[in-house]
Hints:
- The complex is a heterodimer.
- Chain A has twelve helices and no strands.
- Chain A is an all-alpha fold.
- The longest helix of chain A has about 45 residues, at about 15-60.
- Chain A is flat, with a radius of gyration of 27 Å.
- By secondary structure, chain B is mainly alpha-helical.
- Chain B has two domains: about 1-155, no CATH class; about 225-460, MetI-like (MetI-like fold), CATH 1.10.3720.
- Chain B has 16 helices and two strands.
- Chain B has helices at about 1-30, 40-75, 75-80, 85-100, 110-145, 155-195, 200-205, 225-260, 260-275, 280-300, 310-335, 340-350, 355-380, 385-390, 410-415, 425-460, and strands at about 205-210, 225.
- In chain B, strands 1-2 form a two-stranded antiparallel sheet.
- In chain B, α2 (about 40-75) runs parallel beside α6, α6 crosses α16 (about 425-460) and α12 (about 340-350) runs antiparallel to α13 (about 355-380).
Amino acid sequence: MNSAAADAAITRWTGDAMQSRLRKRYRSERLFKLLGLAAVGVSLAFLAFLLGTMLWKGMGGLTTDFLRMSDSTDPELAGVWGALKGSFLTILVTMALAFPVGVLSAIYLEEFATRNRWTDIIEVSINNLAAVPSIIFGLLGLAVFLNFMHLPRSAPLVGGLTLALMTMPVIVIAGRNAITSVPPSIREAALGVGASKMQVVFHHVLPLALPGILTGTIIGMARALGETAPLLMIGMRAFIAVPPSGITEPATVLPVQIFLWSDEVDRAFVEKTSAAIIVLLVFMLLMNALAIYLRNRFEQRW
Amino acid sequence: MTLGIAFIGILLIALAVGGISYSQASRLRGGGRLHSLPAYHALHALIWVLVPTLLVLAAWAPMQSRLVDQAVLSSPEGQALPDFEMQRDTILSEARQIAHQEIAAGFNPESTALAPRVLEAEQRYAGIGGIAAILIALGTAGILLLRRRGREFRARTSVELWMKGLLIAASLIAIFTTLGIVLSLLFESLRFFRLVPISDFLFGLSWSPQVAIRADQAGSSGAFGSIPLFWGTILIGAIIAMIVAIPLGLMSAIYLTQYAAPRVRSVIKPLLEILAGVPTVVYGYFAALTVAPWVRQLGISLGIESASSESALAAGLVMGIMIIPFVSSMADDSIAAVPSAMRDGSFALGATRSETIRKVLLPAALPGVVGGVLLAVSRAIGETMIVVMAAGLSANLTANPFESVTTVTVQIVQLLTGDQEFDSAKTLAAFALGLVLFLITLVLNLIALNVVRRYREAYE
């Protein structure tokens, strides 16, 4: 009798107990939402602070001379042109190797491979390679390209090869996603009018999947452009005062140049390092913007 | 150089044969339908001329350099060289560089005399190889043109078979890369374990790889106990970075998927992704320049006298921030994969949004989130530049985040940059560390990929 009355008091909407419980629930609801907002805010604040610091420290060093000159021991004369050229050559090698191989293996895995043990092994090794630490690829490059094949040290050729092995899995994964999103009706229609399997893939599926593949490739290339650790392993950390003129000549790349300058004792290099970081970030942002543009411009909903 | 000319010649022959096949096939078209389009006839001829010849050329190139060396050494100037092999090899490589006009004069005077012999031998053997390759190309071209094809000739089938071979070859490169990583790491590690017992490496508590210059110096062997390195790696990558990244990443994913308006989300999500795109060397510089001094100040104001300017906390904090977008996008995916019926059911029972998230969505998405966190840990412990620039070099076995610790990746960079002699225990130790790092990340990745995949299947 007594307990039933108490229950009624608790479950009555206008009762004090119910009202205070509701208030508590609304309070925790607001708190939770605030926590989420705070998490996003902290991340964005950190990003803004990082970019702001670099701009504040490096804007003064961003002159045309800085873009024209190469590395020097004198901070007054040091510039990024040599490193930019090295980065460009390295990325060129990476692109020339990783893009065709990545696209071809994505095509094979999506369109031709029958599910068997070999395909499983290929799939597992691609997924795993995409998550292997980059420094391991540097060790591979050092052991295979330098010590076994005797390719020239600190050359864009070796750097590009190493980064290509690293970027290839990223392109394969992006390529497979782009290829699966092409609807089967396209394939069936092409097969129906008498195209061979190979013609279906190269005349119809690949052109339709290309924007998606390119988006993934550009993001992979941007990652390769910012990569430092594997290039340190293959000796691209030498002092290079003359810009490289070919892919077999000693070179350095922009991220490595930043790393080398950050180690300098001379305080004047702080400005140089921050300015080089601004240049690197501008390139990364341009590449990412291009990828987003491509995705929005050519994305198709089937 | 002459091999280059031979290559151009072969290319021209192949193109000519392709063109002739094309016009032959086009003429056949008058008599009825062809099995394959003329372009496939041309491609078929092109492939059959190019592939065998280029294979021969590729096999010849390394053979040629060995033949050149032999010829040079057996010449009168070569006979006069010292017997000591290493010295002879340096002179030979200098002579090669002079012959190619890469350097003006060698360090050894003998190399200048040797240079014309190198040039002579190279021209002779390149001539032999080039002419042989061109003859093979002409031979296959002749056979192709003599066997006139009818309308029924299945050129397309043959070309497509070649293309399929190319596709398979491209996808096998992933396996070869994995195999290359495992074999090269294993091979160098085995050489290391011949110098340093494996138990010392895996269970030793002290790490000081300084190997003395002279073998008879005291303490010349160095200490290669890797426990302090792995502890440092775990402290920075798996503990401090995750304490930062898991709550922040998870809460931002929840806010963006459950609370934020679509317009807000479409602005904030790319901004968060920029955080993942910033190169690690930039984070490293920022950590060393800005965060580390703050952390040191904080440590001193807390009364920790030993607070280092290369603290584990500074590197871990920045690494955690770097990982946020990664955790966030994995959590985003797993929450999105929870069937909306579960969410709707919870709302229908009167639960608030946060109650639904905490009591229904998160438990249901937990396997996916755990998989994502494992991948994030694997990425954090393999991360190099942040720790190289912001964490220290001293291998301390400490749990105090204000002190300096070192990590596996820092030591790999440290051991392999600077002077390298490829047989010392110091350089080989880097490969042993790399092997263990690779195995740990491999296991983490495989578990995580499996968990995520099985979780996706559960809700499909």
